[in-house]
Amino acid sequence: MTTNQDWIDRDLSVLWHPCTQMKDHETLPPIPVARGSGSWLYDFEGKRYLDAIGSWWLNLFGHANPFINERIKNQLDQLEHVILAGFSHQPVIELSERLVALTPPGLDRVFFADNGSSGIEVALKMSFHYWRNANRPEKNRFIALENSYHGETLGALGVGNISVFTETYAPLIRPATIAPSPDCQKAGPGETCADVTARALSAMRAILEREADQTCAVIVEPLVQCAAGMRMHEPAYLSGLRALCDEFDVHLIADEIAVGFGRTGTMFACEQAGITPDILCLSKGITAGYLPLAAMLTTESIYQAFYADRASRRAFLHSHSYTGNPLACAAALATLDLFERDRVIERNRQRGAMIDALSTPLAAHPNVANLRRTGMIIAMDLVDDQGQAFARTERRGLLAYRHALEHEVLLRPLGDTLYWIPPYTLSDEEWRMLADVTLGAVEAAARG
Ligand SMILES: *Cc1c(COP(=O)(O)O)cnc(C)c1O
After folding, report:
1. What is the mean pLDDT of residues 202-231?
2. Predicted confidence band at 312 (pLDDT cuts at 50, 70, 90)?
3. What is the CATH number for 243?
4. Which residue of 60, 255, 297, 420 has the smallest Cβ count within 10 Å?
5. Per residue in 45-70, pLDDT tens?
């Protein structure tokens, strides 16, 4: 039998891991996973971990889900992949039809890519190219929000505002204008979130008054800015922003890569504001965490601006090799079937009260601040005994991470923000265990 250590040694001699200072592995080695089942990951020695972060916000219906497995296996025997330029296939057509039907009204065309960041590149290029085709080439800039995250390719970093990702590459990036975030945590003493919303919208109006003529689009992460530390805002911000984008004639790009597919309590976050963006970006949960896929939905009017004789050079020539991969589309179709079959949105909503009850002891803990929940995203910030944030250098979140691992939970904090983005299939028992271990992790982190 191979041990965990065998795999760790082999890993560390060849791999370079994402989002990692590899030297950290000298003290905290990567965990080799032999298999997954339901909400659990198992290492090579039988130790298990509850996947409380859905393996980076992807997994919706557990690991090795028999229903999804079966559908991918069936597809595998039919067609593994085919070029999507000049050719088409059943899963991509069916998936496109179903996404058009499920997403807010007016999004009638689907363009595919093979991961989230590439999807953002598609959205930015599509918006820019639309204005160029509309004889408005001077509209070539973007507006993004403070603390935004849209992926890590260079175009996506241009609309990002988290310095650990953007700073080093600044010379390579064409930065967007950054507008204040409507993050409810910015409410000052005596203020409500509605005040923050109103202030963020009037700041956006001021920016648009100055820059709309040069602006292609405003890009936002609807309802929750996940990578920034699960920062949440009101649906009213989105409806206000939609109105401003209409008034100033700029596109609204909704990046629902993290929040789509039920995460915020509705299938798509935009539904809660009753808005239709000009471009909607989907990835992550689209295949329930099985295979890389991104879908960008847009309006017939954007699509029509590219539709012309070949000589006009209006076509959108963007492409990725694995665009619309049939196996990924089959996984996505199985995912949508599970949403319907198990009435997942409704069932998740019914579990809200149970989740709130379980997080009450956490919310009351002196070393926890800002416990917050939007649908199936629950987050809280570690604070010291005086209720102040710990110095970043103390890395208290890392202590929480270690404690949780020792107690069979994969909880991967963002700095000192602990969060749960679990599969939708956690049992009541697993939810209780998650809350208990998180409480222990808070205490371990507070002890230092
Ligand atoms: C993860 C994420 C992306 C990037 O997706 P990748 O597949 O990791 O490239 C973009 N936007 C948001 C909001 C995300 O959470």
Report:
1. 98
2. confident
3. 3.40.640.10
4. 420
5. 999 999 999 999 999 999 999 999 99
Which candidate, 15, 44, 52, 68, places its Cα nearest to that of 339? Answer: 68
pLDDT tens-digit readout, 115-149: 999 999 999 999 999 999 999 999 999 999 999 99
Q: Kindly give, in sequence order, each residue whose CB lies less than 8 Å from that of residue 169, ignoring residues fewer than 6 positions away.
A: 154, 157
Together in a domain, 366 and 259: no
CA of 294 to the centre of ligand 1 (A): 10
Residues 6 or more apart from 24 whose CB is under 8 A from it? none
Does the annotation flag 116 for ligand binding?
Answer: yes
Chain center to CA of 160: 13
Residue 410 lies in domain: 31-64+343-447
Strand duo 141-145 + 109-113: pairing = unpaired
Give yes or no for residue 266 having a pLDDT over 90. Answer: yes
Q: Is the CB of 151 under 6 A from ligand 1?
A: yes
Both 235 and 250 in one domain: the answer is yes
Give, using CA atoms, the residue closest to atom 7 of ligand 1: 116
Q: Is 225 in the pocket of ligand 1 (CB under 6 A)?
A: no
Q: Which of 58, 115, 117 to mutate to test the pocket of ligand 1 (most atoms within 8 A of CB)?
A: 117
Q: Is 90 exceeded by the pLDDT of residue 227?
A: yes
Cα 424 to ligand 1 centroid, rounded to whole Å: 20
Does 157 contact ligand 1 (Cβ within 6 A)?
no
